[in-house]
Amino acid sequence: MELTTQLLIAAIAAGTPLLFATLGGIMNERAGIIQLGAEGLMLMGAVTACLTYLQTGSLSLALLAVFGVSAALGLIHAFLCVTLRANQIVSGLAVTLFGTGFSAYLGKSVSGQPLGTTVPRLQLPWLEPIPVIGPIFANLNLFTWVSFVLVIAMHVFIHRTSWGLHLRALGDNPATADVMGIRVQLFRYGYVIVGAALIGLAGANMLLVYSPTWIEGMTAGRGWIAVALVIFARWNPIRALFCAYFFGVLDTLGFRIQLTGSDIPPYFLKMIPYVVTILVLMFLGWRNRNKPSGTPEALGQPYIREQRF
Amino acid sequence: MLKGATELRSSFIVSVDMQGIVKRFGPVIANDHVNFQVYAGEIHALLGENGAGKSTTMSMLSGVYRADAGDISIDGKRVRIHSPKDAMALGVGMVFQNFRLVQSLTAAENVVLGEKSSFWRGARWMKEKQREIEAISERFGLAFPVDRPIWQLSVGEQQRVEIVKTLYRGARIIILDEPTSVLTPGEAEQLFQTLERMKREGKSVIITTHKLKEVMATSDRISVMRKGKMITTINKSETNERELARLMVGREIVLTKQQKRPIPGKLLLNVQQLDVEADHGRKALSALQLRVHEGEIVGVAGVAGNGQKELAEVLTGLRAWKGGSIHFNGKEIKTASVRSAIEAGISHIPENRMKSGLAGSLGIVDNLLFKSYRTEDHSRLGFLRASKNRMWSQELVEQFDVKTPDLETPVQQLSGGNQQKLLFAREITRKPRLMVAVHPTQGLDIGATEGVHRLLNELRNSGSGVLLISEDLDEVLQLSDRVLVIYNGQIIGEISAEHADRERIGMLMAGLSTAGEAAV
């Protein structure tokens, strides 16, 4: 296989968990709720998948458990932010701190134990002859295909359906949505929970496909990168796909350079994605300084109907 | 039943009937047993000062607030309105003073936002809806571009979107909260024609306002509210402006006549060819020319968003400019600096007093000190002179008649009028050479407004220059020695106070700069 193909395969492998987490973040933030709990949710997703799989040996049960656990965490976040109108940043950080600590505790007994799972792959040999991208698409795992479908589905949902219109209104101007008869609180709950479940799925994806052994803190800040990716993608699922793969490439690049036996210390190589995150944020901030950023306008603001205005 | 009979006799159909409505916000009673009736097919004006409780009453009718007590009937049936959705289902639609529009969505998307039918919204569906919406706009004379996002529309157009939104959803009772506060006189005239059309189609129209002229021009019946209570409801034909003013304020008001104007002194502020960019790189001011002399009030009239905010920000050092020159008191100002503006003697009454004028959670002393704490009088070696400052503040509070429980009360707990007095106290005590006052009477009742006008006049008489930026044309005309009209970032007309006429200024505010254009 040529190098480009190899790099692309690696980028997709590393980028897919980021993509799920980013899509989940977009769901949350389009509804106007900041989600800084991504890191904790991913870790909880990963550890839940690991434990359930080791207990039952069933992939579907493992995923079900992941959805359950991360949706429950999403529910707590939604309760804090929507009903109690707590500070969304603090609530998100609490989810991350809780997830980081609790996943470490839960995963103690299985730490370092290889899972030996095989996530089914879709074999499409007739794609093989296409140069460069053929070999990639001929042999992708189920998670990746689901992420493709999800990107398109979310894009169509947001821009072509009545619920999508409501979602856009929800994050930009909940007071207007309310006056138009949209149930702001209910829908915000819904989107926060679904978004959290997607972020949990990102963690499960990482564990089941990308590095199939539970290690404490295995996401290594990818949840935070997903938070930044939501901004890079300007809350748009299609852009999220490209952003996630871009960071996937950066992630793999570190390993590649290491394999060539260069003298650069591995710690520096591992820093690449995080340094680039900072650089890209600076670059985008500079380039778009005169443009509206696309941020949902009511992001971070709780909505109370009877608030005097 | 009995009620139905009386209605038939008087041949009026009551479409809205609110009885004994009570609403409290904490300790404040916003509505105190309010009774309010609207007939079908009439334009009903709800008149009252800011804070009289008009918007609160209307918010309960439209489901935004819930009444603490009282009954609401619509078309003779007792109803419960728990949410805007309930109100809509009963045919009540409200056009809020701060529009309820999603800026990033198109006009058409905003109109269909609440529609539940059809999950799928393809291009065909949208086209169809756009045609429906355009049909409604045409029927009522409410034109706007349906496929453009809201943030690209003018304020007048946005209001039309809001009105079409209620009509599209089948509202029979339409409430407009202070509808003309954002419009040019021309746009307001157009709005009144639309209201007439709605009335002719049998809709009940309620407008809340504090402008007497409008009430007399548009309505069939008038209800007057004062301090949370309904005072009376009268037919327009049986009353006049003077009586309404008395009912609204609760006492006879003497309309202050303009005193003799002093002759302006030397040139104080000279702005030449000023170019300024707004927040997103859009051009806010282009080649703007402006002069203010000592001892004159220069009024800047214009519809919101034509560069007024940026102009005030540049003059007070809050915003940098791209090109042009500013000379103040004979010296050129080179860079934007709030501190040097303060030291040069430029005072500022900002547009939003609680956002950029006062620190809401701090007390009176701290708020009064903000611009003078550096001086030897108020601090020594970086330490504030606490007891001296308290005495100084106490004097100012008495001099400017600020009503406050004590000097430590957070200023956000004061009424709007008292906050504004406090702000004026701070700005005037520095003996400014130039005062930049932006919407100085916004949200104030008639008494407080009179006070602010008096302060500005005194300032002018003492030889300072005043630049008054206001959307309230009446205010500008009443106070100013010269009126400038700002449109699209430029001063497109200057009129001396003696020759000011509303119609001409209204044309200029709408951007029709020459007589020829205006005639079209």
- Strand composition percent of chain B: 25-35%
Order of helices and strands of chain A: HHHHEHEHHHHHHH
Name given to the CATH architecture of chain A: Orthogonal Bundle
Q: What's the CATH first level of the domain at 269-342 and 441-513 in chain B? A: Alpha Beta
How helix-rich are the residues of chain A, as a percent range?
55-70%
What's the CATH topology label of the domain at 269-342 and 441-513 in chain B?
Rossmann fold
* Spatial shape of chain B: globular
Considering the protein shown, what is the CATH homologous superfamily of the domain at 269-342 and 441-513 in chain B? Answer: P-loop containing nucleotide triphosphate hydrolases
Radius of gyration of CA atoms of chain B, rounded to a whole number: 25 Å
Annotation field: number of helices of chain B: 19
Q: Which fold name corresponds to the CATH topology of chain A?
A: ABC transporter involved in vitamin B12 uptake, BtuC
CA radius of gyration of chain A is 20 Å
SS strand fraction of chain A: under 5%
Domain ABC transporter (chain B): 16-252, 269-513
GO molecular function (chain B): ATP binding; ATP hydrolysis activity
Organism (chain B): Paenibacillus abyssi
Protein name (chain B): ABC transporter
